Amino acid sequence: PTVLQHLAAENTYTAQITSSYTSLKDALYNEFIERLQETDTTTPSLDKEYWYYSRTYEGSSYKVHCRAPRFSSGEHYKEYQVMTTSLASWQTNTSTSVLPEEQILLDENLLSKNQSYCHVEALEISPQIPDKMAYSVDFTGDEIYDIYIQDLSTGKMVDSLKGVESDGSIEWGDDDNTIYYIKMDDLHRPYQVYRHSLNSEEEEDELLFEEEDELFWVSLEKSQDSNYLFIHSSSAETSEVHYIHLKNPEEKLQCVAQRRLKVLYDVEHRNGYWFIVTNVNQTVNKRFMMCEALPNCQDLWQDVSDAKEILFNGGEVRAIDTITPFVHHAVITGREGGLPRVWIVSFDDNDDDNSVKKFVQLTFDEEAHDVDLGPNHAYDTTTLILSYSSLVTPLSSLLVDMNHPVTTSKEGEGKNKFVMKQKVVPNYNPDLYTCERTTVQSRDGQTLIPVSLVYKKDIMENNTKHHPTHVTGYGSYGMSEEASFDYTRLPLLNRGVIYVIAHVRGGGEMGRQWYEEPNGAKYKCKMNTFNDFVDVARWLISSRNITTSELLSCEGRSAGGLLIGASVNQDPSLWKVAILGVPFVDVLCTMVDSTIPLTVGEWEEWGNPNEEYFFEYMKGYSPMNNVREGGAYPSMLLTGGLHDPRVQYWEPAKFAAELRHKQDQSTSGPVCLKIDMTAGHFSASDRYKYLKELAFDYAFLLGQLGVVDSK
């Protein structure tokens, strides 16, 4: 009770400090709503005999999952074109069904009734006769899920698994009577895989796999052709994959390749062969390798090449992330030149050994963009769905004919690809905005840091004027911050704010070398992340000359909150405002205590401070341990979720207290803490509540910057 009272008092204090921003917050929220197509649909995707999609309705907080029968059994590409015509007709009359004979599978608005939080993690349809649905749901934000199985023909619940400490993962077996799921241990680590027969007791479920090493997490995945169930057991640096053939589920679980220290690999299956993405032999980036689909096959792996070259040799230039096989093709996602890429591999159908006939990289018109795979459920298809956006181009669903892939995309013309659906953003004119991609030299004199900027064109007409500038970043786990579209940025841009993404080391923008030692930002080179971020901020002021410290703000979430905390400590006077969302700021105390959920697995990201080798280095950047005595700090907003299992609420609470204790009160801005008492790591699940929370954050940002003019 004492802790809850303290958090409530902090929330009250923050409300008092920000009370003058109420009208600004309301204005921002209304501007979000003005640019949100409240009644909308995702692009339907084909899976066997149905189109699957989700809908939203004006005034409703959650999604509605739907399906509709396919129109014919013909060529997928042509059928997608027909579907797109129906979709265009619906957009002129959104009160009707998206597609003919629409069926509601799951209405999350009904599911969330009387709940303060609701998140559906997985929704899977039975594979043989698609009349059953399994889904997992979390009602607290603590990322512990219950599983339900519903008969779609009657609407009745036929089975459930409650209180099993599931991580939310679900996969059906080959029949319609078996599901596979994962249990977590007391420290929130996914570690056991169970097989459950419908209508049997949970005590009768069969334990298929258990991972005893606390460094390793377990995950489930079906092969694209649905023949195999893969059980991944991975740490940040080492992985191992077991499998069962779903046509013969009673066979013994087998291992693709025994774990080897610092060897990562993922597996897919096509035509009797394993497709393997791996860093074996300590390559800088991962390789695309292949061998016959046998157990313990590590000595059989061979690089895949076409007539000219090895497709992915693990070098620094080209990085592979994922591979998705189809009957005649494989689609690879990865990175080259700092941008996400997509390649299509075509195989020689006359060979049984997966010989490569053609290898094509798709290219796009805009210099900086984000592209990834859309929902591609079908295996026997030559049709590929992509998701594409940029800092100024809203999300589009693109259709590509893999037999004749074209290498430009955006205009929606041409025989072999077109834009099926572009997300409608009301009251948005892309011609008013522009974006840039540039690089900034780091303080080491060798590294070029990619930087993306987006702003209204008219604010740059006066080159002598300084502008409010908001810098964001992440820089951990090898995860990339993409140059994608976000309509919630528009109220900032419309008030003259320049929005900047610093693609700092620790992410994966430039490949694995951007993340790994010795020149990335992991372990004892983690300081590169924070140095890069500060260097970008200083460049914006001194070299680019578009802002000043009085107009400069920064923001990051989770490990991005660590980035902000460490960067502000490094140079407190560089910033006017800082927002730290669910921030990982008490690095030493958290990482030294193996009883805190998720800690042990993080030792291969940051290091184990129980070892002197890492302790002193981590102490040197941990935000909690480096607040400057008497420093002039910016205005700071720290947020957290009471039920967050990833970054516990006490981290931002402790950091707020430490900042107030040590900073110079007369020259520093206010330190505000805001804890959501009904959410976890990912903020509100209700889309309208989420927007209200975001409006609060941006009102604090703009108010403290002094940018309170209306749009």
Brief overview, please?
With 711 residues, the protein is α+β, with helices and mostly antiparallel strands.
Written overview of the protein:
With 711 residues, this protein is an alpha+beta fold. Helices cover 19% and strands 32% of the residues. The protein has an eight-stranded mixed β-sheet, sandwiched between helices. Strand 31 (469-472), helix 5 (490-493) and strand 32 (498-502) form a beta-alpha-beta unit. Helix 2 (22-34) crosses helix 12 (687-705). The longest helix has 19 residues, at 687-705. It is globular and about 75 Å long. Mean pLDDT is 95; it is low at 408-415.
* Unreliable residue stretches: 408-415
| SS summary, helix count | 12
Percent in strands: 25-35%
Q: How far apart, in Å, are the first and last alpha carbons? A: 43 Å
Instruction: Estimate the mean pLDDT confidence.
Output: 95
Tally of DSSP β-strands: 36
Globally, the shape reads globular
Radius of gyration: 25 Å
Structural class: alpha+beta
Cross-sheet strand order for the largest sheet: 29-30-32-31-33-34-35-36
Largest sheet report: 8 strands, mixed
Helical percentage: 10-25%
Topology:
Layout: H1 2-17, H2 22-34, E1 40-41, E2 45-47, E3 50-56, E4 64-69, H3 76-90, E5 103-107, H4 108-111, E6 119-125, E7 132-138, E8 145-151, E9 157-172, E10 178-184, E11 190-197, E12 206-210, E13 217-222, E14 228-234, E15 239-245, E16 254-257, E17 265-270, E18 273-278, E19 287-292, E20 302-303, E21 318-325, E22 329-336, E23 339-347, E24 356-362, E25 370-373, E26 383-389, E27 396-401, E28 417-422, E29 433-441, E30 448-456, E31 469-472, H5 490-493, E32 498-502, H6 527-542, E33 552-557, H7 559-570, E34 577-581, H8 587-592, H9 599-606, H10 612-619, E35 635-641, H11 650-662, E36 671-676, H12 687-705
Parallel strand pairs: 31-32, 31-33, 33-34, 34-35, 35-36
Antiparallel strand pairs: 1-3, 2-3, 3-4, 4-5, 6-7, 7-8, 8-9, 9-10, 10-11, 11-12, 13-14, 14-15, 15-16, 17-18, 18-19, 19-20, 21-22, 22-23, 23-24, 25-26, 26-27, 27-28, 29-30, 30-32
Helix pairs in contact: 2-12, 6-7
